[in-house]
Amino acid sequence: MLRKKEKQITMANTGSNHTTLIARQTEISGDIHFRGNLVIEGKVRGNVTAHSDSDARLQIVDGGIIEGEIRVPQVVINGNVKGDVFAARHLELASKAMVEGNVHYKLIEMLKGAQVNGALVSSADLSSAGEPHMLGYSEDETVIEAS
Length: 147
What we know:
By secondary structure, the chain is mainly β. It has one helix spanning 2-14; strands spanning 19-22, 27-29, 32-34, 37-40, 43-45, 48-50, 57-60, 65-67, 70-77, 80-82, 85-93, 98-100, 103-110, 115-116, 120-126, 132-135.
């Protein structure tokens, strides 16, 4: 019994298990800076940030909306984002993700149905000048349609 209590105290001190929920029917205007986990089911009009050296994780569920820039190490999107996304570690775009802005990532997972109206920029592909390598549409590319 004592061991279980010690473990709970240790976990609380790390701050990584704290979850903040912005519930459906909730709308927030203003910037949010957080640690731990942030789940968005409602609407946020403002920038969402976390320390890049933390284990912070942002999850935008189906029906969740953010109108602003996102700068969080780990991001899971299954809702709508109007603004640029910067995921320093991992980005997951689920099947109902809709991003209207540029997406900067180190590691990305993108499921069928996810939409991005902007550039996909890999932070792992920096040129020697420090400019990011842009992934985008090229007129030289051949498009093959499945029949």
